[in-house]
Amino acid sequence: MNPDIELRSYQLRDAEAVAAVTLLAFSQYSELYEQWNLLSRRIATMSTSVENAEIVVAESATGVCGAVGYLSPGSVKANFIPHEWAYIRLLVVDPEYSGKGIGHALAKECVKRAQRDLAQDIGLHSSPIMDRALAMYSRMGFKEQRKVPDILGVPYSIYRLSLT
Q: What tens digit of pLDDT does each residue of 120-159 get?
């Protein structure tokens, strides 16, 4: 990762910037979702809607360029994620910063937190339309576990990395 990028804990003042980066990251897929307007409203509130998540932001000299939510084992998650898993939630990177290792650094930070929390597994859900992200997760050792219901017409699966 670029040494000019810093990972740090989310602060309330980051809400607008995280929302903007989330929308930028997902906008490249906007035509693939059946109801982009609905999805864009949902994901823009990620930083304030996931109360039990630890949010990590990636920041450059010009501002927030990535973010991710981490949920510990036992925390409330989507019903298709096993309760005992740690969970990576909505990892996003500004497309302008794509390919600079920011997504990998954010995912590694979640794995580190899962190890801190003594999780045996960490999971995430993603879609085949997010091919660059899936390639990164695969290189990290995540394996597809099963398909889950589509989100607004886009297929998704659950991926798991064993930490034992």
A: 999 999 999 999 999 999 999 999 999 999 888 899 999 9
> Which DSSP helix (H) or strand (E) runs through 54?
strand 54-60
Amino acid, res. 101: G
pTM listed for this prediction: 0.92
How do residues 111-131 score in pLDDT, each as one tens digit?
A: 999 999 999 999 999 999 999
Are 159 and 144 in contact by the 8 Å Cβ rule? The answer is yes
By three-state DSSP, how is residue 16 classified? helix
Backbone angles phi, psi at 52, to 5 degrees: -95, 15
Q: Is 56 strand, coil or helix?
A: strand
| Half-sphere exposure for 164 (CA within 13 Å, toward CB) | 6
- Residue spans of beta strands (DSSP E) within the chain: 6-9, 54-60, 63-71, 86-93, 121-126, 143-151, 154-162
CB contact at 8 A, 76 and 84: no
49: its two tokens = 């809607």
Could you read off the pLDDT of 63-76 as tens digits, one per residue? 999 999 999 999 88
Number of helices followed by number of strands (H, E) in the chain? 5, 7
Two tokens, residue 67:
């973010």
Place of tokens 């990028």: 5
